[in-house]
Amino acid sequence: MNNTCQSEYKELSMTAKVLLSTWYGLVGLAATIANAVVLWLIAKTQSLRTISNLFLTSLAAADFLVGLVIAPTWIFIRCLGYDADTYLQTHGKVNDYLWIHTTVATTFNLCCVSLDRYIAIIHSLRYREILTKRRCYELIATVWLMSLILPCSRFVVAEGSVALWLSFAIITVLIPMMVIVSCSIRILRAAAEQSRKIITDNSLLNQDAVKRGKKNSKAAKTVSIVVGLFVVCWSPSLVTSLVNYFTLDPCGLNQQLSYYTEWTSVEALAFTSSGINPWVYCLRNDEFYEALSRTFPCFPRRNLGQDNFHLRNKGGNQAEI
Predict the structure, then answer these.
(1) Deepest in the core among 63, 203, 303, 304, taking most CB within 10 A?
(2) Nearest to 171 by CA among 237, 252, 248
(3) Phi first, then psi: what are they for 320, rounded to 5°?
(4) How distant, in Å, are the alpha carbons of 47, 50, 286 from that of 312?
(5) What gap in Å lies between CA 25 and CA 37, rounded to an integer?
(6) What value does the mean pLDDT take over residues 82-109?
(7) Cβ(287)–Cβ(280) under 8 Å?
(8) What span, in angstroms and rounded, lies between the C-alpha atoms of 58 and 55?
């Protein structure tokens, strides 16, 4: 990089550094505590150790790493100790590996959760046949293996490679977003169709059918919330990446500048999802919330009712998030 390129680097203002450091700190704290609680509840509560919750466990582990590792790392490197040349020559590649690893783990696990919900609602009668425990373990292992291997290309590709970062943007954000949105659309359509059948067909107006329809509707709404959070949190990262990849000058300054300024802000928003996801699942899932309220008295107990208990034992839990 020549002197002309170096001279155009900009420093974040002190206000921006304080705000971003505070944001990362709060996100990291929320993600660490919330996901630790989810993992602890699953380990402590036998009824939560279902096939479906294996994917939630994997997602919570990925989000936990974001809060425990990535947020503190970005506070130190991005906000407090950034120097362009030092960053690129020393810890730049290591930091890139860490955030790519956690991003892949988070977005791909969200894909698994969405696919699990899709199968549970669209193919509810074949759910246990399609998603066996062995297949779940294999899928989760594949996700984590990809999250470990994919970032390794950062160590062998030349610095500032447009193709590398464009590929990362597509693989880590765009493809998962397409999968999640597609599954969610099908889930919402299926839930709406089932609700119409229950309303219009008197033969389906029995207690179990109505309760199952309500659970499917609730699951669809939860998926919609998660998808909405994913799109809101990750879209700025994707858009910023694509815009900068196609507006590079000969020095590659647009990419490098956004990597430190705009990129620091949009990644803070992306990591925010790791602190929100566990609360969405815990607060909307009756069994999670029941285990949470038993552990922490500050959360009021819900009256699930005896019928809800029987329905879960009959398999209704598959369609609940």
Answers:
(1) 63
(2) 237
(3) -110, 145
(4) 11, 12, 11
(5) 18
(6) 74
(7) no
(8) 5
Closest-CA residue to 77 (of 101, 62, 96): 96
Cα angle 18, 21, 24 (rounded to 5 degrees) comes to 150
Please enumerate, as own/partner, the contacts of 73-81 that have beta carbons within 8 Å and a separation of 24 or more: 73/98, 74/24, 74/99, 74/264, 74/267, 74/268, 74/271, 75/20, 75/21, 75/24, 75/25, 75/28, 78/20, 78/24, 78/260, 78/264, 79/12, 79/17, 79/20, 79/21, 79/24, 79/264, 80/17, 80/21
Residues 219 and 242: their CA atoms lie apart, in Å, by 33
Question: Contact, 273 vs 225, CB < 8 A?
Answer: no
pTM: 0.81
pLDDT for 120 beyond 60: yes
Structure tokens at 152: 């390794």
pLDDT at 39: 93
pLDDT of residue 82: 56
How many beta carbons lie within 10 A of that of residue 74, not counting itself? 25
Nearest to 217 by CA among 112, 321, 110: 321
- CB within 8 Å of 206: residues ≥ 6 apart: none
Instruction: Please compute the mean of the pLDDT values over residues 247-272 and round it to a whole number.
Output: 65
